[in-house]
Amino acid sequence: MKRPWLALLLILPFLLVFGAFQLAPLTWIAFNSFDSSESGWGLGNYAEILGSPFYLQAIRFSLEISLWSSVCGLLIALVGAYSLTRVDSRLRGFVVAFTNMTSNFAGVPLAFAFIILLGINGCLTLALKQLGLIESFNLYTKGGLILIYTYFQIPLGVLLLFPAFEALKQDWRDAAALLGAGAWQYWRHIGLPVLSPALVGTFIILLANALGAYATVYALTVGNFNVVPVRIAALVSGDIYLEPNLAAALAMLLVAFMTLITLVHQWLLRRSRHVPS
């Protein structure tokens, strides 16, 4: 580009917004996570979290719900995204637009919808009981949260995976068929290796989406279910006592976990590029 200063000038507003709303809060959180009200500056907040069964349970529940909902959402989205590539273009456009709309259906409206459908006296719960298909179903447990989280993971997964399926060329399938490869051999040696970066990247995004979800679980359980976002909110704006520095340490543990997964993802991508085809 002949005028690099013009490109820098155009990107400057984005850099300012990114610094103000991303880097500055993250720096504040990281700095204050080492400031303990009891032991002073150091690792006191992290020691309290890692030594507390209550906070360890919150971390375990958050990881279990996020992992299971991300895996289930990814598998369903994988089938859905592949199906979109096999249908008529007009139907595909409608489904993609509908999926884009439903990907924003989360938080309090989603919790209310599930309470109406699958709550203790939900219409679908009562109907299944009348038919004798279930004896009881408790939406306000870990299994119920996994179900809700999986629901709002699916549209996002479809939107992220659909472009990856569009990159699979029909010529590759035809060439594999001419060489005697079956459907399983095609997906094992061609389809899945090509899709693997998109699959891993989508899984990481779904995992981050689930780990940071707060409004849905709070609206459903009124903050009575022990997950990390609820604990952070309680420490920042709770009615009993406020520990913002402890909340910062909890948030940094989530950041460290996501950073570790992202680094593993980047390592796998670099390794896949160096593997001879």
TrEMBL record:
The membrane topology term of the UniProt record is: Multi-pass membrane protein
Q: Report whether Transmembrane helix shows up as a keyword of the record.
A: yes
TM stretches of this protein: 65-84, 105-128, 148-165, 246-269
- Pfam families, alphabetized: BPD_transp_1
Q: Could you say which protein family the record assigns here? A: Belongs to the binding-protein-dependent transport system permease family. CysTW subfamily.
Organism, by scientific name, is Pseudomonas benzopyrenica
* Principal location: membrane
Q: Tell me which UniProt keywords the record has, alphabetically.
A: Cell membrane, Membrane, Transmembrane, Transmembrane helix, Transport
What this protein is called in its record is ABC transporter permease subunit
Which segments constitute the ABC transmembrane type-1 domain? 59-265
Q: Where in the cell is it found?
A: Cell membrane
Its signal peptide is none
Question: Sorted alphabetically, which InterPro entries does this protein's record hold?
Answer: MetI-like, MetI-like_sf
Q: Which PROSITE patterns match?
A: ABC_TM1
Alphabetized PANTHER family for the sequence: INNER MEMBRANE ABC TRANSPORTER PERMEASE PROTEIN YDCU-RELATED, INNER MEMBRANE ABC TRANSPORTER PERMEASE PROTEIN YDCU-RELATED-RELATED
Please name the CDD domains in this protein's record: TM_PBP2
